[in-house]
Amino acid sequence: MKRKPSPAVRLLYSPACHRLSLSVRLQHSTSQRGFFTTEMAAKVCRTVLLLTRSSGAVVTGLPALAISSQRHQQHIRSGWRGAPSWQGQRLLSSSTAPEEVTVVYQNGLPVISVSLPSRRERCQFTLKPLSDCVGVFLTQLQTEDRGIDRVAIYSTDGARVASSTGIDILLLDDFNLVINDVTHLVRPPRRDLLANDEAERLNDVKFLVQQLYTTMRIEEHQLSKEKELVVRLEDLNSQLRPLEKVREELSRKAERRTTWVLWGGMAYMATQFGILARLTWWEYSWDIMEPVTYFITYATAMAMYSYYVLTRQEYIYPDARDRQYLLFFHKGVKRQRFDIYKYNELKDSIAEVELDLKRLRDPLQLQLPVQQLTAASKD
């Protein structure tokens, strides 16, 4: 009795081509070989087809299976090519350029639109060409976005525009706005220049507006300035009071010692007169004392000249008295460790503040009428 061959089906993986190959071999107990039956071949085909669908492999050796595998791979490729375009774009990173700074005129006023760096938002700044300057615009930018560390305006040739430049002058040409490390090229819209007559009339209007503003705000400015000066004067006086007490005490001591020196000089001169008179009329005669008085007078002249050589001042009694007073006063300052430099600085500051108050309260500054000014001068 012949035994049916037992088929052995093996799937081999080829790393070189990344495919699965089917190897079917019939094992016989004898040396005879045969072919598959129809039923067994159908089972093998179904099994391999399921494997190829799950793994996407290409089966070699069976033509029908190879064609089925190729169709399956083409279906997968066509499905991948038919995928939406946004799936491939997910892998791409896009970087957009910073938005431009635009300048438009609304109701006759320039409106500058800038993208703020912190929130990436567009912000509009309305400026006044006649009164605003570049510094005002830069301050508004930093106030609006605290993330701006550095902001400046440069001309197209690289020169920095001063903060005092007017907005009307800035918008005449193109310029670069630098915010942190980003440079924006700003191209203001071109406007026709005014004629000479219109320009002069516009300058007159600007001058009148400035005068009107000054006239309306002068009283408020004077009141605020006077209040500020009064507060400063009170502060300086509060700092000066303790120093003033120490200075008065030192001044009294120096005055007392200077008075003693003056009376000591008077006592010396009276004693000298008494001794010379006693020697001239009682002890000796005038013939003997005359050369003595001459040498005493000459010695006094030499002492006065020595005073001039040492002090570079003529020996005049008021000046000599003031000098002696200052010597005693500064000795007391060193002894008490009195800060004379701070005292002098406070006195100078108080004098300046009082002078400013006097000038501020001047009737001419207050714009008083003529009658009130005359009455104030009489008082």
Structure, described:
- Belongs to the MCU (TC 1.A.77) family.
- Keywords: Calcium, Calcium channel, Calcium transport, Ion channel, Ion transport, Membrane, Mitochondrion, Mitochondrion inner membrane, Transmembrane, Transmembrane helix, Transport.
- Helix 1 packs parallel to helix 2 and helix 6 (196-283) crosses helix 9 (340-360).
- Helix content is 59%, strand content 14%.
- With 379 residues, the chain is α+β, with helices and mostly antiparallel strands.
- The chain contains eleven helices and eight strands.
- The chain has three domains: 6-78, no CATH class; 102-186, Roll (Ubiquitin-like (UB roll)), CATH 3.10.20; 217-378, no CATH class.
Which descriptors apply to this entry?
three-stranded antiparallel sheet, 3 domains, disordered C terminus, 379 residues, elongated, alpha+beta, 59% helix, MCU_fam, transport, disordered N terminus, Ubiquitin-like (UB roll)
